[in-house]
Amino acid sequence: MSSGEIVVRALITGFIISLVVITGFAYTTLFERRLLGRLQARIGPNRVGYIPIPWRGGEKRFLGGILQPAADAVKLFLKEDPTPAKVNRVIYNLAPMLAVIPAILILAVIPWAPAFRIGSAKFQPYFAIAPNVNVGVLFILAVTSIGVYSIVLAGWASNSKYAVLGGIRATAQMISYELSLGIIVLVPIMMANTMDMGQIVEAQRHVWYIFLQPLAAIVFFIAGMAELQRSPFDLLEAEQELSAGFNVEYGSMRFGMFFMAEYMKMISVSAIFATFFLGGFRGPFVDDLPWLGFIYIFIKIVAGLFLMIWIRATLPRFRYDQLMSFGWKVLLPIAVLNFLITAVLIVMAEEGTLAPLIDSVSKFFTG
Amino acid sequence: MVNPILFIILAAVAIAAAAGLLLSRDAVHSALYLVLNFATVAVFYLLLNAPFISMVQITVYAGAIVVLFLFVIMMLGAEKLRGAADNVPGSEKIHRYIAVLLALVLVGVFGYLVSQNSIGVVTQNPAIDASPQALGITLFQYYVFPFLVTGVLLLVAVIAVAVFGQVRKGGSINA
Question: How crowded is residue A154: how many other Cβ atoms within 10 Å of its Cβ?
């Protein structure tokens, strides 16, 4: 395949996947609102767009609220878009874009399905915008580390005390939790012996890493939530203290872009978690019917989103000192220990000293 | 072979970002120009078949170090440096002459080296394997001692910061 073909294919798949994820973002907001409603013993938005069920007299409604995201988008677009006085205009306008770009960019290396072909177009060795990136995991870390700029710059450029405080909190938090995230990501890399996302999925053919490394999966999920700045880590927009934090001076679709970036990152983190620990697109019969891969990863992403929303509805927000001491004194040592022990066990297994050890330990206990 | 048009565009962006970094009066703008510069350099690494270095460049420099710069700039409220250089005593003339002299020396040396073709002007992809695995083997087998020494150095620096930043019982920071 020539480089021109690769570029054209990446453009087409990138366009499709971005569109799907942007639609997915809209429905993630609806999913969150309905689910939060259920978890708080209320109904949630169910009025905008529904399919009445005629044989129940139109009383029962099917898919209530299915058009709520469209209504929200229209509302955001029609709102006044004020720019406060004395903002740093260039950076104020740049910050929402810097939020959305990494959120879309991160989709490039996530594998969505195994190899398949449409007509003469073969997607090998797996379906992704950019397959075969031998530094795929590092790409994800690099892009997430860029994501912090939008929040910091939005906070600073708004020329507002609440916004600056939110931005500074966000910076400290993201730098602290990025460490744990970076270290824990090494565990699946070491076990799969590759940084290619697709090969990490392939290495989980027989057993998912969440069963081999449950602690690593938990640490990854917590650190991922902290990177997302989602509740209970949403100190940067703590309503009671900072009114809305970094985005307090933004309105209309500029606020909408921050909102969009947050939900798209939720989807990405969920997809990355699925890829690292839940076997990505793998599932029963996926080798024979490749399109099942899309369904499997969709189910896993929705499960991750469900967990995030559930946590948001359950846990109260961290206090700032709790957040820092949890990140540095609990999460980071666990991540480092997990990494070290995994590394030692892998080397022992390669040198063949692990099996005799397990043998003698089991003999000791069974007698 | 690196596409010459691509190279020229990227080089222009990198140089413009570096110039913006120096000329900007606003420290936050300077930091952002620095990010742009680092990102462009990362793309250069990619073009030279060094994806690992490229990604690490973005993660470490653009993602962590400049964020720390911004953090400090915002904490201190030191964004505006308007006229600060003029307030340093004795900085009116002599410093500027020295700066121009040093710049001329730098341009002269680089120009000479490029004209002699004695610094590595990379015109084609190097024939080495720069995959993460190959890099890891090189780093942890052939250069493991320097790597460990660097690690110890960084650890010492971290401990020193922890010691100096300690809050004493009286509540004052141990400086």
Answer: 30
Contact B71 A195 (CB under 8 A): no
Give CA–CA dist B30/B7, Å, rounded: 24
CA distance A290 to A192: 22
For B138-166, b where at least 16 C-beta lie within 10 A, e where not — what string? eeeeeeeeeeeeeeeeeeeeeeeeeeeee
Task: Nearest by CB to B63, from A133, A142, A195: name it.
Answer: A142
Q: Which of A87, A89, A106, A134 to mutate to test the interface with B (most CBs of B within 10 A)?
A: A134
Decide: B168 and B174 in contact? Cβ < 8 Å.
yes
Do β-strands A121-127 and A113-118 pair in parallel, antiparallel, or remain unpaired?
A: antiparallel
CA distance A96 to A154: 7
The CA-based angle A66-A70-A75, given to 5 degrees, is: 130
What does the angle CA A174 – CA A150 – CA B74 come to, to the nearest 5 degrees? 75
The whole-angstrom separation of Cα A79 and Cα A74 is 9
Question: Which residues does A contribute to its contact with B (CB < 8 Å)?
Answer: 88, 91, 133-135, 138-139, 141-146, 148-149, 152-153, 156, 164, 167-168, 171-172, 174-175, 178, 182, 195
DSSP string covering B66-130, please?
HHHHHHHHHHHT--B-TTHHHHSTT-SSHHHHHHHHHHHHHHHHHHHHHHHT-S----S--SS--
- Kindly list the structural domains of chain B, giving each domain's residue range(s) and its CATH number in brackets, ordered by start: 4-142 (1.20.120.1200)
What is the residue-level pLDDT of chain A in tens, covering all 367 positions?
Answer: 677 777 888 888 888 888 888 888 888 888 888 888 888 888 878 777 777 777 766 566 667 778 888 888 888 888 887 777 877 778 888 888 888 888 888 888 888 888 777 777 777 777 778 787 888 888 888 888 888 888 888 888 877 788 888 888 888 888 888 888 889 999 998 888 888 888 888 888 888 888 888 899 999 999 988 888 877 887 767 666 676 677 777 877 788 888 888 888 889 999 999 999 888 888 788 777 778 888 888 999 999 999 998 988 888 888 888 888 888 889 999 999 999 999 988 888 888 877 888 888 888 888 7
State the ipTM, two decimals: 0.79
A146 contact residues in B (CB cutoff 8 A): 58, 62-63
